[in-house]
Amino acid sequence: MRASLFLVLFNAIGALAASAAQWKGRAIYQLITDRFATTDGSAPECNTADQKYCGGTWRGIINHLDYIKGLGISAVWISPVVQNIPAGDTTIGDPYHGYWQNDIDSLNSYFGTADDLRALSDALHAKEMYLMVDVIANDFAWPGDQNSVDYSTLVPFNESYFYHPYCQITDEDYIEDQYAVETCWLGDSNNELVDLNTTRSDVIDTLYAWVSGLVQDYAIDGLRVDTVKHVQKDFWPGFCSAAGVYCMGEVADGDLDYVCPYQDVMDGLVNYPLYYVMLRALQEPTGNMTALQDLVNGVKTGCKDSTLLAPFAENHDRPRIPSITNDPARDKNLIAFVLMSDGIPIIYAGQEQYYSGGADPANREAIWLSGYNTESDFYNFTASVLNFRNHAAAISSSFNDYQQLPIYTDNHTIALLKGYDGSQVISVFSNFGTDSGTSSVTLTGTGFDSGDSVIEIIECVQSTVNGNGLNITNTGQPQARSSLNSQFLSIANNL
């Protein structure tokens, strides 16, 4: 009855209910539609090196929503849904990922029909989950070089004057020429990404109308916006306003001073600055924990609202963390750091199965090859940490708005406080690794008093705060501690 009422409300008021504020407390599962699940439940071979369509569909996702929800996930981010260039038209593979669009007025038939996409939206809402769709406003794809572009194939912008004149973005441009970043082309001679002139009023009006229609037609709750830094900033407020839902932009850069201003033009951002510093700090014993502490504090002051950013440790563009660390303990620290950070955390499909593919395309494995194993170590670990976070937020209405505070760092350890006294959580992360042995640290500034009983949620270990502070035995595994009261004890018993 509760799920049915939720679905009725969504159908009645549309996706506008999913404001930025309502996304706080959500956790996102990012998947590549072609690689998550097939409609008929088959598990075909899928060689990532071939870069071909493997058969995943929107109907396939519907069939495995319980697997996703079991992780504690409350939103699903799917690949771009619009039509792409034909399969087999380039020497560098098929557009199975969805980013080589050539007709935004049509859907990608490899993924399903309009009815299938609406069914996915309905199925998510019935489980009180949100649908996030990836969208691109920067470019259209052409399977060839700049001299051979047939603009008549690009819909609805089917004339050359809708696009910027050809110039290729260079590595130097990213350092010193923002104008070139916004007006030159991505891609290469095998597959050019023809850059839309988003300063033209007709292009602006068409894109705003398109995104508004897309969101309403499919009851979409949020957008992940691709290649945000390649479009001038003043385009984005109107685009996101037309969408009427939470916009999370991709600004793929590690410079906090460069990235944060983009939050002035859209609700949230994928937290790339945190990603780079977090990875360097936790991937090996020589990582810089002080830099991680400084970055956590810097995000709070530099960006408009750190609680609307989206931390992540893996995605479709970055190598999977096991391919970098080759150490399960460090990998768990990275996952837990993301899940306990400020913002709207992202789990990339396959993390929960300890997939280890390296750089693109190796990191785009088929999830069906795991058998959707809900008993695997990393599935259960991810679910334990995320469900703890969800319960902590349910206990305290201020938890998701509280900006985490670093309270301790040394060469191998960082401890963070999140939440006000009485409902606070102390998370401890280490770069020691699996065979580190143990070390002890004493934490002060935790909000706990001497004599308070606390519980470590992941391992369900109880301890008592003494006059010096909270004593922690660092085993190389991530830890999360909270008050030993009836509410948190109930959480521990159910994880």
Strand order of the largest sheet: 11-10-9-5-2-1-12
Tell me the span between the first and last alpha carbons.
26 Å
What is the helix tally?
A: 17
Beta-strand content: 15-25%
Task: Give the number of DSSP strands.
Answer: 20
Uncertain residue segments: 1-16
Radius of gyration: 23 Å
Shape: globular
Portion of residues within helices: 25-40%
Rounded mean pLDDT score: 93
Largest sheet: 7 strands, parallel
Q: Structural class of the helices, strands and pairings?
A: alpha/beta
Word description of this protein:
The chain is α/β, with parallel strands linked by helices and 495 residues long. The protein contains 17 helices and 20 strands. The strands form five sheets. Strands 11-10-9-5-2-1-12 form a seven-stranded parallel sheet. Strands 13-14-15-20-17-18 form a six-stranded antiparallel sheet, with helices on one face. The protein has a three-stranded antiparallel sheet with strand order 6-8-7, with no helix packed on it. Strand 7 and strand 8 form a beta hairpin.
Layout of helices and strands:
Elements: H1 2-13, H2 20-23, E1 28-30, H3 33-36, H4 58-62, H5 65-69, E2 75-78, E3 82-84, E4 101-107, H6 114-126, E5 130-135, E6 139-142, H7 171-176, H8 178-183, E7 186-188, E8 191-195, H9 201-217, E9 222-225, H10 236-243, E10 246-249, H11 256-259, E11 268-269, H12 272-282, H13 289-302, H14 322-325, H15 328-340, E12 346-348, H16 377-395, E13 405-409, E14 413-418, E15 425-430, E16 439-443, E17 453-456, E18 461-464, E19 470-474, E20 479-483, H17 486-494
Parallel strand pairs: 1-2, 1-12, 2-5, 5-9, 9-10, 10-11
Antiparallel strand pairs: 3-4, 6-8, 7-8, 13-14, 14-15, 15-20, 16-19, 17-18, 17-20
Helix pairs in contact: 9-10, 12-13, 15-16, 16-17
